[in-house]
Design a protein that fits this description.
Blueprint: H1 4-11, E1 26-28, E2 35-37, E3 46-48, E4 55-58, H2 65-83, E5 85-91, E6 94-99, H3 102-109, H4 113-143, H5 148-158, H6 164-178, E7 183-186, H7 188-205, H8 209-216, E8 237-239, E9 246-248, H9 268-288, E10 292-296, E11 299-303, H10 305-314, H11 318-347, H12 354-367, H13 373-384, E12 391-395, H14 397-415, H15 419-422, E13 439-441
Antiparallel strand pairs: 1-2, 3-4, 3-13, 5-6, 5-7, 8-9, 10-11, 10-12
The structure holds zinc ion (2 copies).
One zinc ion binds next to loops.
């Protein structure tokens, strides 16, 4: 096979290591299904698919040790965030002080058990599990611990459901809302939580998925002749979405992670459409039902998402009002509309602008979870603002319904198989060489 053209292209991007394609660097792009050889990356470089620009790999220095150290520090900060006072609020001579755990615990006592468990999962349990999993996998390399494959599978499955960054945004929004009427003091745990957030984000930034799976078991190689630059489907190959191994079509389970591997996600469009329709149906009561009940000097006000936005706008809190409006109204609607459009593009038979729609899918997938910010604002304010008839905030049933809308749209994005957008796109007979090797970028 002639590799000269693609190798020289890679070297111009700064790689000074041997870039000879090796069998263990064969990858199938999860977004467009083209088989490519991963160039030998140096730490700091990323490899992108030449057909759809999806990031295939990002090489990190010390790819297992660094995430493990960051994860250990993050866990320590999470522990500190739970030990000391989190935030306190003073109003008319009385003071309300909460711990971090109260954000979910108070909802439980307010007959919002499901919402309470969801908030606890999103801001405590899932982030803690992810950090523990990374440490376990590092220790597992050294001591050959059991169940490493299961831990790694669950780690990557749960990653999008860790919402500490969104909760931090929710805290800042809550402070802007409250600071005009009350005195807010930040406890030691608040700063520990901020550090936890940063360390948690950094842990995932420096985590090298390829290296992690390679540390568990070497990537299995298809025992058939393969041709880079052609799709996996053309060559009786399929991708293991869990560990990124290339698996022959006839093989039911991945030999590395034992996950059941299918050519395309089964009934992807049907599942995505069903979830989108569910989200549409839930979106109506989510906007009609009160998301929050506010008591102020004996007056009780139920506010929906829209009325809360209007109130903030009238109070002159424009930046917060815009953030809430974008996160709670614009993003869910745009996400639902775009996902319907992607389903339509994937279902129709003629050629479409797959590269463009693939970028839209990546954006929609990334931005969707941020809609949860309003729910987390309600959870935090319900825990903190508890001054009886003077001033109190209670979660409304709309908060739970809106959380269900966000969760169903996130599941819809997960159920959608972006390769369906590319399946109708033919690679021209003279083009496959262009896709032979992924592009390395510093
Ligand atoms: Zn691709
Ligand atoms: Zn696998």
């Amino acid at each position: 096979m002639n590799t000269t053209a693609t190798l020289s292209a890679c070297q111009t991007h700064g790689s000074d290591q041997n870039t000879d394609p090796r069998p263990d660097e064969l990858v199938l792009c999860p977004h467009c299904d083209v088989l490519q050889y991963l160039p030998a990356l140096i730490p700091g470089e990323q490899a992108h698919c030449l057909r759809c620009q999806h990031q295939l790999d990002a090489r990190q220095p010390n790819p297992i040790m660094r995430p493990a150290l960051y994860a250990t520090s993050a866990l320590l900060m999470l522990l500190l965030a739970n030990l000391f006072p989190f935030v306190s609020m003073a109003l008319a001579g009385t003071r309300s002080e909460i711990h971090f755990f109260d954000t979910s615990a108070v909802l439980f006592t307010e007959y919002q058990q499901i919402l309470s468990i969801l908030v606890w999962l999103f801001i405590q349990a899932v982030p803690a599990f992810c950090m523990l999993a990374i440490i376990y996998l590092k220790l597992g390399m050294r001591y050959q611990l059991p169940a490493r494959i299961w831990v790694a599978r669950v780690l990557f499955m749960l990653k999008p459901w860790s919402m500490v960054d969104i909760f931090l945004m929710g805290l800042l929004i809550s402070f802007v809302k409250l600071v005009a009427t009350a005195e807010i003091s930040l406890g030691m745990s608040f700063w520990a939580f901020c550090l936890f957030c940063l360390l948690h984000l950094r842990t995932f930034q420096v985590l090298d998925r390829h290296a992690l799976w390679a540390s568990i078991a070497p990537s299995p190689q298809p025992d058939v002749a393969v041709k880079a630059g052609r799709t996996g489907l053309d060559q009786q190959l399929k991708l293991c979405h869990c560990c990124t191994a290339v698996v022959p079509l006839a093989q039911r389970h991945c030999s590395r992670c034992h996950t059941k591997v299918t050519v395309r996600m089964p009934a992807s469009l049907q599942k995505t459409l069903a979830l989108l329709i569910t989200a549409c149906v839930l979106y109506v009561p989510a906007n009609m039902l009160p998301i929050m009940r506010t008591v102020s000097f004996g007056d009780v006000t139920d506010s929906t998402i829209i009325s809360g936005f209007i109130l903030m706008w009238q109070d002159g809190e424009y930046p917060v009002a815009i953030i809430i409006f974008l996160a709670s109204v614009v993003i869910p609607i745009i996400k639902i509309v775009l996902m319907f459009w992607l389903c339509y593009l994937a279902a129709k038979s003629k050629q479409t602008a797959a590269k463009y729609s693939g970028n839209v899918y990546r954006l929609v997938d990334w931005v969707g979870r941020w809609s949860m910010v309003d729910v987390l604002v309600v959870a935090f304010m319900a825990a903190l603002v508890r001054f009886g008839l003077l001033a109190s905030v209670y979660p409304g049933v709309g908060a739970l319904v809106f959380a269900a809308v966000v969760i169903t749209t996130m599941l819809a994005a997960v159920s959608f198989d972006p390769r369906l957008l590319w399946d109708n796109q033919q690679i021209a007979a003279d083009k496959p060489m262009q896709y032979r090797q992924a592009e390395g970028k510093v």
